[in-house]
What does this fold into?
Amino acid sequence: MKHAPQDVLVSPLLTEKLTAMRESANKVGFVVRGNANRIEIKRAVELALKVRVERVHVMNVPGKMKRLGRFAGKRPDWKKAIVTLKEGEKLEMYEGA
It folds into this structure.
């Protein structure tokens, strides 16, 4: 099932580890829809952000169990994508941060 590019990317991931990866290896991270595949993610990043993508790594992150007193619950599972940009490509949305 095809998705519109704006529906595939949920939000950017901004962590210390991904910041180091962005500076050293030209990689950026995104939270993506749970049913999106690599091809859809690559097209969405290229269309939405106007950059060329070299490679996409995708991983499913299981939600954590959380407790509040005697009540237990579970945070939802989510999917993240680590996108490697081609040489010379930069994202302006990260340059000011």
